[in-house]
Amino acid sequence: MNYQAQGYYPQFQQTSPGSPGTSVLAGIGALGIAAGMGGASAYFLAEVPTARDIFALPAGLQSLLIGRMVLAALALIGAILLFTRRRAGVPLVALTAVASVASLPLEPLISELLRGIGITVSGYFEALLEFNDTYTILLAVGAATGLIAFLFAILPATSRWLRTPRY
């Protein structure tokens, strides 16, 4: 059967190549995660007198600080992967973004230090939202940029941009 006689020609939809802007914004958000979460952990270790030796801290606080440092390193790697147009950067940035936001409500549940000084979970969040010291500001920066990084990392335009051939 002749397809030209019937007037049928298969139509292929061409998709747009994606936007480099979404990939760059996701990468900048990942850099914000690295700066916020890594900076908050480094600030805590530098400013709290009893935290000079991380292994002398309670186990929950150790895991929180080390976890945030690892999170910052993974976010930095994800940002580099996005800036070099590697597709592995998208899930890495998305996972670190979710973990950075999830680390805030987990802190009062994990850390024994808060129980030792008598702060409740509601008191922790009140102190966190006052933004009266560098630690809380860095945590807020890490969480806010985590939301931004997640939003731009999961957009289809970011994946399309990373899949387009490089010339």
From TrEMBL:
Per UniProt, the keywords (alphabetical) are: Membrane, Transmembrane, Transmembrane helix
Superkingdom is Bacteria
Q: Which residues cross the membrane?
A: 21-45, 65-83, 90-106, 135-157
Q: What is this protein's name?
A: Uncharacterized protein
